[in-house]
Amino acid sequence: xxxxxxxxxxxxxxxxxxxxxxxxxxxxxxxxxxxxxxxxxxxxxxxxxxxxxxxxxxxxxxxxxxxxxxxxxxxxxxxxxxxxxxxxxxxxxxxxxxxxxxxxxxxxxxxxxxxxxxxxxxxxxxxxxxxxxxxxxxxxxxxxxxxxxxxxxxxxxxxxxxxxxxxxxxxxxxxxxxxxxxxxxxxxxxxxxxxxxxxxxxxxxxxxxxxxxxxxxxxxxxxxxxxx
Length: 228
Ligand SMILES: Cc1ncc(CN)c(N)n1
Description:
This protein has twelve helices and no strands. By secondary structure, the chain is an all-alpha fold. The longest helix has 26 residues.
């Protein structure tokens, strides 16, 4: 079995729980509380900014130009394309995207970004890929499953979001992540493979927790100063 298949197998209960998450079910039903959409976009804007920085760290670990081009293209995808699903949430919530930028990271978003930064700062390219992969992988599965389940028409409030993540572009990004993870795992020893597994599982857990953070509008226990 490929290492990426082993990752998916170990993480299966977390993937299943993400599909059943009330925020994700709300996307399917076209009914997510406005406050949850706003909190999500505020946090995700900052999360994705950090994601681009981590792609920069990943580039510094690449040993060939093909890998560098992949990460460069992913930075462009985040900066130029992933604004569309954010805009969809903003339109449904009736707020301006610009007004939701520059928020302080809530505890879960802080934890998740620091987890990935730690993997990318101290680990190999394989460890970095394993920590980053649940980001495209879980969204691709949500998009694909919702396309199959409800096959939304243009009058569905989250048509743009679902069709964006259920599209072949996100499928291809996920497939490329898997191939690169498999190549790194083949060259890695057991200790590195074990770290890759741990990074992947923690990031998948934090994907689930990120939906909860937005749904419950998680804040710091004493939200003062720059942490408001
Ligand atoms: C937290 C999170 N995870 C994944 C994605 C999809 N790239 C996202 N926008 N935000």
